[in-house]
Amino acid sequence: MNYQPILDRIHGALKPVIGQGKVATYIPELASVSPDHFGMAVVSLDGTVASVGDADVPFSIQSISKLFALTLAFQREGDSLWARVGREPSGNPFNSLVQLERESGIPRNPFINAGALVVTDILVSRNTNAEIATANFLGRLCGRSNVTYDPRVAQSERQTSSRNAAMAHFMKSFGNLNNKVGEVLDAYCRTCAISMSATDLARAVAFLANRGTNPWSGEKVLDASSAKRMSALMLTCGTYDAAGDFAYRVGLPAKSGVGGGIVAILPGECGICVWSPALEETGNSYAGSLALEMFTTLTGKSIF
Amino acid sequence: MNYQPILDRIHGALKPVIGQGKVATYIPELASVSPDHFGMAVVSLDGTVASVGDADVPFSIQSISKLFALTLAFQREGDSLWARVGREPSGNPFNSLVQLERESGIPRNPFINAGALVVTDILVSRNTNAEIATANFLGRLCGRSNVTYDPRVAQSERQTSSRNAAMAHFMKSFGNLNNKVGEVLDAYCRTCAISMSATDLARAVAFLANRGTNPWSGEKVLDASSAKRMSALMLTCGTYDAAGDFAYRVGLPAKSGVGGGIVAILPGECGICVWSPALEETGNSYAGSLALEMFTTLTGKSIF
Amino acid sequence: MNYQPILDRIHGALKPVIGQGKVATYIPELASVSPDHFGMAVVSLDGTVASVGDADVPFSIQSISKLFALTLAFQREGDSLWARVGREPSGNPFNSLVQLERESGIPRNPFINAGALVVTDILVSRNTNAEIATANFLGRLCGRSNVTYDPRVAQSERQTSSRNAAMAHFMKSFGNLNNKVGEVLDAYCRTCAISMSATDLARAVAFLANRGTNPWSGEKVLDASSAKRMSALMLTCGTYDAAGDFAYRVGLPAKSGVGGGIVAILPGECGICVWSPALEETGNSYAGSLALEMFTTLTGKSIF
Amino acid sequence: MNYQPILDRIHGALKPVIGQGKVATYIPELASVSPDHFGMAVVSLDGTVASVGDADVPFSIQSISKLFALTLAFQREGDSLWARVGREPSGNPFNSLVQLERESGIPRNPFINAGALVVTDILVSRNTNAEIATANFLGRLCGRSNVTYDPRVAQSERQTSSRNAAMAHFMKSFGNLNNKVGEVLDAYCRTCAISMSATDLARAVAFLANRGTNPWSGEKVLDASSAKRMSALMLTCGTYDAAGDFAYRVGLPAKSGVGGGIVAILPGECGICVWSPALEETGNSYAGSLALEMFTTLTGKSIF
To answer: Average of pLDDT values for B146-166?
Structure first.
C-alpha cells in the first residue's frame, strides 16, 4: 500500500491544530522545543518510506525508549523479568506511587516510570553503560551507527528527577532494585534523552510488525510469539493512562513519549512514527494521536 | 480454516486441569455448578461450527452479558454514552468503589460492575424490561427465539447484591443513575442470569468479527468502525483486572464472566466461546483462559 | 466560675463573622436555615446556665446525635461494640468509602457516617423505634420530656441519602449490618433530624463532664472510666477530618454536626454547646469553632 | 502524689508480659536490643522522681525525638511551620506515601516520618548540625550536658532508609524540602539515634506538663498556649495509627518510638517515660502501652 497520499492528507487536515496542547515543561530542556513541529513517517516492511513534515528532524524520544529498553532486557532475561514488573494497565497517572505501595514495590507494567526503572536496573546490572546499550540497540534496529543521547536533556532531566528518585528508593525499600539509585537514575535519564527522527523510529519499530525479525538486517530480535506479546503490552499499557481510549480511537499497538513522539505498528505491514511536541493532558501528543486516528480511519486498517 | 482438530487437541491437552480453580461461590445458585464442565465452540463467518465437550450445555453467561447490553445501549445512545462511563482499564479488582469515588461516580469502563450498572440504567430508561431486551437481542444475534434468563440464578444474585447496591447508590449520589436503584439491580441481575450455550454465544459474538454485521441475518448491528472499537474495549477491559495479562498471553478481544464463560473473536474469521466453571483468582475461567491461549498458539493467529 | 461575661465577650467579638461560611445544602430542609443564627450555652455541673444569642432556639442536631446514639448502644453492648467499629481518626473526608473498602467493612470510628450506621443498626436490633429511643435518652439527659425529631428534615435527608445507602449496602456486603438497609437508614435519618436547643444540648452532654453521672438526676449513665473514654473518642474523632486541628486550637472533647451545632465538655466543670449554621469546609460551624477557641483562650482552661 | 507505689505495682503486674511483642528489626542495630528490658520513670513538677526497672538505662529514643525536634523548630518558625506540615492524624500506617501523594507533598502531621523529615529540613536550614542542636536542646531540658546520638545506630538506620529517602525525594518533587535529601536524611537518622534513659526523658518532657516552662531551669520553652497545643498534637498524632485507641485506653498526651520508649505528660503534675523494646503491631511498646494504661487507671488521672 502506498501510504504517501494518506500522510499528505493527514498533514493537510491537521495543520490547523498543530501546536494545540502543551509542550512538557517539567524538563526545562524539553520546554524550549517549539510546539509547531509535526512529522510523520511510515516504513513498510519492503522498505518503502512515506513521510511528511519534520519526519527527519531528531527529537527527544523520552518514554518511547521504554519499549526498546524492555525488548533488550527481555532478550536477556526472558520471562523471569515478569517477576519484577507486572503486565497490567496502571489505571493511574503515570507517575503514581499509590499503586506501588499497594503492590509491594512491583510496578504494574514496564511502560510506567517505575517499571522502566526496574528495566533500567536490569540493564545496569548487565552493561557498563546501559544507556549506550539501548542506543546501540536502536542503531542496529534502524540501521544507523550514530544513535546517541543529548547530554543537556539528560542533565536537565536528572536535575528534576525527584519523583523518579522517590520511586526508585521506594522500590529499593521493597528489594526490587539491585543497583545504586543514583546509577539507575543516571542511566534512565540518559536513555530517555536519546534523540532520533520519526523516520528512524518507524524503521526501528518495524521488527514488531515483522514477527520479531529486523526486516532490514534479517536479525531475529524476538521470536514471533514474544513480538506479538510485546505488541499486546503496547496496546494495553503503551499510552499512559489513556491506553483504553487510544485503543478505542486508534486501534494500533503504540508507545508514546512526553517529547511528543508516538511509535506504532500495523502488524504485517509497517512501522509508524509521528511527532508533534504539544501534548494532551494524558501526556500523549495531541496532533500525533489525531494523526494515528486518521491513519486507521483512512486506511481502514487496525488490528481489530 | 478447519478448527475442529485444533479444538480436539485443546480438549485433550486440558483434560488434566479441568476443574482446577474455584467455582464462583458468592452467588449460591452458581456455586452448585460442577467445576468439571468444559465446552468450546468456534463459529466461522461462513457458518461452520467446530465444537468440543459441553459446547451445547447452557450456562449462566454473567458478565458476558455486559458486552451485549453495551452494544444494545450503544446502538441507541451512540457516543453520548461515554459521558457517563469511561473507556479505560480499571487497574483495580472488578468491584472496587475506590476508583468510583476518585472519579466522581463515573465508572472506568462499561465492563466493570459499576459501568454495567450505568449501561443497565440506560436500557431501563428505554425499555419496559431491560433484561428481556438484552435476551431478545442475543436471540437475534445467534438465531434463537428462546434466549432467556434463569429466574433462580437472578433471584440468588439479587439476594447477594449488596455490593452492587452500594455502587448503584453511590453513583446515584453523583447523579449518574436515573432510575430507581432497585429497578436497575433487578434488571442487572436478570441480565447476568441469562443462560446460553458456548455454541450459541460463539454465534452471537460473530458480528464483531464481521465488521459489525450479523453474518447470519445480514443485519448491520454496528458500523464497522464501532465494531472495531467495541473489540478494542474488550481487549483492554474485557477480562477484569487481568486484561493486560490476557492480551499478552492470548491476544484476542474477549469478555469473560464468573459463570466460567469467555467469548472472543478473531477479526475476519470467527466467533469463539469457551466455558469451564472453575475460575482463576482474577475471576476468569482457568481452563478457559488456557484454552484460548492454546488456540492462538496452535493457529498462530491473534490480532497482533 | 461565672461564664456569662465570657459568653458575652465571645458573642460581641464574633458578631462580624457570624454568617461566614456555608450552610449545609445537601439536605434541602437544612439549606433553608438562616446562616445568621448564633447561640451558645454553658451549663455548669451545679446547674448554673450562662447563655447568649439563640441559645434557646431549637436546631437540627444532625451528627451530634452520633455521640448520644453511641452512648446508648455502648450502655447495652459494652466493649463488644468495638468488634464492629474502630476507634481511630478517619484521616479522610467524613463520607469516604475508600477506608471502608480497605478495612473490610469496619468503619474507622463511630462518629463518621459509616460508623454511626453500624451504631444505628445495633439500636435498631434492640428497639422498635431506634430514633425514639435516642430522643428519649436525650430527653432524660437534659430533663425534657418532649425531645423529638423534625419529620420534614428526616424525610428531606432520607431522600438525599444515596451515599449513606451506598455505605450501608457496602457494609452489609461485608456482613457488618444486620437489619434491612432501608430500616437502618430510616432510623439514622430520623435520629439526625432530632431538634434541640443549645441550652438543652449543653445540659445533655454534661454527664460526660461529670464522670458519667447525670448531674441533674443522679443517674449513672456510664461508669467514670467509660465516660473518660467517650471523651477521648470525641477529641480524636469528633469533628470530622479536622479533629487534629480542633484539638490543637480548642483543646476540648467535642462533637459537631452539619446543622451548625457543636457540643463540648470541660471535665469536672461544665457542658457546652454552640450553634451557628454557616460551616467551614471541614463541615464544622465556622463561628462555633471560633467561639470554642475563644472560650478556652479566655478561660485559660482546656484539657491540656 | 507519691507515684513510687504505683510504679512498683505496675512493674509487678506487667512482669509476665514484658518481652511480648516484637523488637523492631528493620534497623539492624535496634534488633540486637533484648526485648526483656522494662523501665519507667515519673518526674513530678516539684522534682520528685519515682522509677522502676531499667529507668536509668539509655535506649534509642527514635521517634520520641520528633517531639523535641518539632518544639525546637516551632520555637524558631512559629505558626508559619504549619504551611509545610499538617496537624491531622494520618489514618494510615506511619510510613505511607499514599497520603503524601493525595495531599501534594504536605505530610499530615509532624509525627509521621514524612512530617519529621520536613521538620528536620527546617532545622538543617538553621543549624550546622541539626542533630546536635536537638541533642543539646534535650540536654538543656533534662539538665544533662552529654546527650548525644549513637553513631552505630545512626549508620545502621541510614543504610536502611530507602523508604525515608523515597518520601524525602517525593516531597522535594512537590517543593517541600529545601536542603539536599542526603543531608536531611543524615540529620534525621542521627536525631532518631539519640540515646537517653527513661528518667532523663521524663525530666525532659516535663516542660509540657508545666505550661511550657522548664521546671528545672525556669526557662520558658514555649508559651502556655503553644505548650497546650503541642500536647494536643501528641494526643491526636503521637502514637502512629493507634492514636485514637491510645487516647481511649490511656488518655494522656504521648509520643512513642520504635525503640520501645513512650513519653507522656499529666498536665500540671508530671512528666512520664516508659521503655520496653518489644512492640505491638502498631509500632508502640506493648508493655509500655499497658503500663501507661495501668497508670491512668490506678491514679484515676487522665486529661479527660
So the answer is: 94
Determine, for residues C88 and D86 on separate chains, whether the beta-carbon distance falls below 8 Å. no
Euclidean distance between CA atoms D199 and D54, whole angstroms: 9
Q: How far apart are CA D151 and CA D142, in angstroms?
A: 21
Nearest-by-Cβ selection for C87 from D224, D227, D245: D245
With cell 463515573, the residue in question is B106
Taking phi over 0 as left and psi of -120 to 50 as alpha, with beta for the rest, B148 belongs to: beta
Whether residues C188 and C68 fall in one domain: yes
**pTM of this prediction exceeds 0.80:** yes
Question: Does any CB of chain D come closer than 8 Å to the CB of residue A80?
Answer: no
**Is the same domain home to C215 and C240?**
yes
Q: Say which residues have a Cβ less than 8 Å from residue D97's Cβ, sequence separation at least 6.
A: A97, A98, A100, A101, A166, A170, D114, D166, D167, D170
Render pLDDT for D70-79 as a digit per residue (tens, 0 to 9).
999 999 999 9
Question: Measured between beta carbons, which residues in chain B are less than 8 angstroms from residue A253?
Answer: 304
Same domain for C111 and C209, yes or no, is no
Confidence of residue D228 (pLDDT cuts 50, 70, 90): very high
In the annotation, is C34 catalytic?
Answer: no
Average pLDDT over residues C2-29: 94
Chain pair C-D, CB pairs under 8 angstroms: 108
Rounded average pLDDT over A140-155: 96
Interface membership of D191 toward C (CB under 8 Å): no
The CA-based angle D104-D105-D109, given to 5 degrees, is 115
- Do B152 and B227 fall into the same domain? no
**Domain encompassing residue D225:** 4-61+194-299
- Determine contact: D142 vs chain A, CB below 8 A: no
The edge-to-edge listing of strands for the beta sheet with D49-53 is D49-53, D39-44, D270-275, D261-266, D254-256
Q: Are residues A133 and A233 in the same domain?
A: no
Q: Of D192, D211, D228, which residue sits at a domain end?
A: D192
d(CA A200, CA A187): 22
Examine residue C304 and state whether it is found in any structural domain, yes or no: no
pLDDT at B96: 72
Query: How many residues can be counted in chain B?
Result: 304
The beta-strand segments (E) located in chain B are 39-44, 49-53, 59-60, 148-149, 194-196, 254-256, 261-266, 270-275
Task: Please check whether residues C183 and C71 belong to one and the same domain.
Answer: yes
In a shared domain, residues B127 and B58? no
ipTM given for this complex: 0.90
Looking at residue C95, its pLDDT comes to: 57
Contact C89 D89 (CB under 8 A): yes
Catalytic residues of B: 63, 66, 188, 240, 258
What are the residues whose beta carbons fall under 8 Å from the beta carbon of B46, sequence distance 6 or more? none
Contacts of C144 (CB under 8 A, 6+ apart): C200
Q: What is the mean pLDDT of residues A163-174?
A: 94
Tell me the average pLDDT across A101-109.
Answer: 89
Q: Which of D160, D192, D224 is the last residue of a domain?
A: D192
> D79, D88, D269: best mutation site toward chain C, by most C Cβ within 10 Å?
D88
| Residue A304: inside a domain | no
The answer to whether A177 touches A107, Cβ cutoff 8 Å, is: no
* pLDDT at residue D98, rounded to an integer: 74
Closest Cα in chain B to C173: B162
Query: How high is the pLDDT of residue B228?
Result: 94
pLDDT in tens, D102-132: 788 999 999 999 999 999 999 999 999 999 9
At A44, phi and psi to the nearest 5?
Answer: -70, 160
Per-residue confidence at A29, pLDDT binned at 50, 70, 90?
confident
Average per-residue pLDDT in chain B? Answer: 95
What is the C-alpha separation between B130 and B120, in angstroms, rounded? Answer: 7
Predicted pLDDT of residue C225: 93
Residue C97 confidence (pLDDT) above 80? no
How sure is the predictor about B111, in pLDDT bands with cuts at 50, 70 and 90? Answer: very high
CATH of the domain at C199: 3.40.710.10
